[in-house]
Design brief:
This protein is α/β, with parallel strands linked by helices. The protein has 2 domains: 6-131, 3-Layer(aba) Sandwich (Rossmann fold), CATH 3.40.50; 141-236, Winged helix-like DNA-binding domain superfamily/Winged helix DNA-binding domain (Arc Repressor Mutant, subunit A), CATH 1.10.10.10. The chain has 8 helices and 11 strands. The strands form 3 sheets. A 5-stranded parallel sheet has the order 2-1-3-4-5, sandwiched between helices. The longest helix is centred in the middle third of the chain and has 21 residues, at 111-131. The N and C termini lie far apart (65 Å).
Length: 244
């Protein structure tokens, strides 16, 4: 079937790559497998717009998965990337998200969870693609707290100085801005920003909200714009009321 979703696996452990490929094929996906970063980037160049998801190992020969993800993001801001790695430290996850990964799953992994994440990433990307041609009703730029944000060019300036933000940070910020003032449940963020099941146990929203606070709040430990509402979710306020 020509319209099958096409997944690129970047994994140098041949037996693992074969196992992942087998299971994805069994689910009806079309799969291309490569064992190093330069070849992965070549495949993306040779198939512009034809890869729907990249599954990326971090410990690759010659060129790390982090470098591959950065290079990939320079070419395509929207292509979903699932990092699959034996690295389990929180700093590895943070770095993975910093270079533009959408999700991070550690080895060894549960096959059902892996397939669920693949499906959710592809579904999430498909929903965005359907609406990509109709941006008239969406916020394309925004200003608050001395910051100027352009969601179309991914440019952010705070007090006139450029600030680098990842795709996921921008997606989360845009969701907050679009839903300003409303309490957003954690489940909703997982489903609409990360493309994950809402009941998944992950600290990703908390980590990313801390990063938004560090970027935009004058006092991150005393947030005025990105608020946590106990037992309810989160709320964004661009112009908080002045306290006496």
């Amino acid at each position: 079937m020509a319209d099958r979703e096409h997944i690129l696996i970047v994994e140098d452990e041949e037996h693992l790559a074969k196992g992942i490929s087998y299971n994805l094929n069994a689910e009806g996906y079309r799969v291309t497998t490569v064992g190093d970063g330069p070849r992965a980037l070549s495949v993306l160049d040779e198939n512009p717009g034809q890869i729907d998801l990249v599954i990326l190992d971090l410990m690759l020969p010659g060129m790390s998965g982090y470098a591959v993800c950065e290079a990939l993001r320079a070419k395509d801001e929207n292509l979903p990337v699932l990092i699959l790695s034996a690295r389990t430290l929180s700093e590895d996850r943070v770095r993975g998200f910093d270079v533009g990964a959408n999700q991070y799953l550690t080895k060894p992994f549960d096959l059902d969870e892996f397939l669920s994440r693949v499906k959710n990433l592809l579904t999430f990307q498909s929903r965005h693609a359907e609406h990509a041609s109709d941006l008239s009703g969406e916020i394309t730029s925004f200003e608050f707290a001395g910051a100027k944000v352009d969601f179309e060019t991914y440019q952010v300036h705070i007090a006139g100085e450029p600030v680098r933000m990842t795709q996921l940070e921008m997606t989360l910020l845009r969701y907050f801005v679009t839903n300003e003032g409303r309490v957003i449940p954690r489940r909703e963020l997982l489903e609409n920003v990360w493309g994950l099941p809402g009941n998944l146990n992950t600290r990703a929203p908390d980590q990313f909200i801390r990063r938004l606070r560090k970027t935009f709040e004058p006092k991150p430990a005393e947030p005025r714009h990105f608020l946590t509402i106990r037992d309810a979710g989160y709320r964004f306020v661009s112009e908080p009321e002045e306290t006496q």
